[in-house]
Structures are given as structure tokens and as C-alpha cells.
Design a protein that fits this description.
SH3 type barrels, 2 domains, 12-stranded mixed β-sheet, 5-stranded mixed β-sheet, 19 strands
Length: 341
Amino acid sequence: MRLLTFEVQTALGRFERLGAVAHGTIVDLTSAMVAHLAESQDLNAAQRTASAITPPDMIGFLEGGAQSRALAEAALETVGTRLKNETRPLGPEGEQLTFDEAEIRFLAPVPRPPMIRDGILILDHYKVGMERLLKFADKENVLEAAKTTPIYWKPSRTAVAGHQEPIRWPHYSEILDYEFELGMYIGKRGKNISAQDAWDHVAGYTVFNDLGLRDVQPGEMSLRMGPAKAKDFETSKIMGPYLVTADELPNIETVKLTTKVNGEVWFEGAIEGWAFTFADLIAYVSREETLQVGEFFGSGPPAYSCGFEIDRWVKPGDVVSCEIEGVGTLSNRIVRETASS
């Protein structure tokens, strides 16, 4: 399934909804489930069941596991049948079941993840960063240590933004850079998970842009405590547009990644050079710690896929986008912030 979280404007204000891409349109899953169940039961009962099994938020849906998925697929089938005869099918109370992209605002698939952990699973990028950006005197020792541990850092949960949201370039920096990565969501709670069992805890994947301020980052990381404000600012953790369930992407670690700036290709290649897998990272993180549904993990970017690695830099007004094969295309325009904005 290709899932998303979106916002719609109604007469009562803006509302956050859970959706799925199906039949060439965006389907409101909760409303579709009500419509599906109302064909065979009382409307009030249908609404209660739909709210419990396919609530209008991604974490609640993922927590429902196989039951939520099965009923969602049945609801999508019902909508597909109705679309054969109706241009815009409505629910039992006149609610809209399908939307065009122009009618919605994309949010991150999980707008408020319980935790974000960005891993260093692809060491080639880390090595280039050590050589060109950080210049640690003991970089060889650091790189050797990185080969033995699937290390990660914890970005701010409040920095999350979605597809088409403007990137807000902070006023305190002159050098903004993108880092497109493969993102993964946890779909099942667990503690002390083995690497062998870890894949069972993966809900699905998305495109992730881990933005950074390259003029701020070296100073913070030279203290061996960063990154801090080089990586944590509003809209610096962009995710989306979809959560594609893991069953649709069995060979996720060999997919192609393409980065474009204003439509021009700046990077194109397979996501390769993995020193560790997501399963390794799940096993490491879950040592005596319970992972929660909706937690987000980043892979780290492929080597030479960031601006600083190829010495090409974005500027205000640029549109940066990334397509990951089978996952989707994440696109955002850069806007410059001022100290008072």
C-alpha cells in the first residue's frame, strides 16, 4: 500500500486525514471504511468500527496491524467499484471519499513520530564528510569505530515537514545543504529484537531530506557533541510524500536514488555501500529499549549525493527534489528566513 497523511480544508476548519493512493486518486481511508461498512451494517456501528480500526492517523493505523490493513484494502476495493460509475463518490453522510493532489496539503507520513533516529549505515558518505567537512585529527580511528557499530543521532521531532512544504533556510547560516536518504518507519513495538527478526518490525519506507547548515556544522561537531543547530531547525527533517509498505519493496537496499535541483539532475545512482542494514540498526537501538510504532529511522545518504560532496550549492528559490525508485518523489522549495520571521 502507498499511504499518506494529508490535511484538507472544510467549512469547520482544516483536518488531518489518513489516505491511500489507489485507482488513480487519493482515498480518505477512514471515510472509505465507513462507506464500506455502512453497506452491511448500521451507520453508527460503521463509524465506531472505522474509527477503531482505521483511525485518521498513521500511528493508529499501523498499530492495527493486519486487521487494519485487510479492512483498508476492502474499503479501497469498494471505492474502486464505485469509481467505475461515479466521478466523485461520497460517503453515507455526503463526505468526500477521494481527493486530487491539488485539494490537499501533504504532511509527513507520520507528522509527529515518537522518535527520529538518523543512522550512519552508508560509510562512504561519512568518510567523505570526515575528509572534507570535519577534518578530525583522529579520523582513521573514528572511521574504524564506525565500521563496528551502527551508530545514529536523534534529530528534533519538531523539525518534521512534508512534501511541498517550503524549506525555511535559517537566518543564522549562509550555507544550506540537502541530504536525501531512505527513511523507514517502525510498524511493531519490540525490545531486544534480533537482526533476524528486525524486518518484521518494519512498516514501510519513505523519502527523507535531512537538511544541514554546513557553515555551522563543523564548529558544533568539533566539540564531539553535535550536530545541534546545524541540523535542528524548522522544516529541516522533511519526509514523504508516502509511506510505502515493506511488502511492496522487497529489494529496498538496491533501489535507485535521483536528486534534482530546479529539474537538473545533480545525483543519480543506486543506494549502495551499506555497512549496516536497517535490521542491524533496529537490533542495536532496541537493546533494553522498547521501540514504538511510528518511530522513524534514516539510512544516511549515498556518497557524493550531497551538495558539499560535489561542491554545488543550493540558493533561495531553488526547488530540490529526490526520487527513490518505488517509493516516490519528495520536492520542496527553499525560502530564506530573516531574524524576525
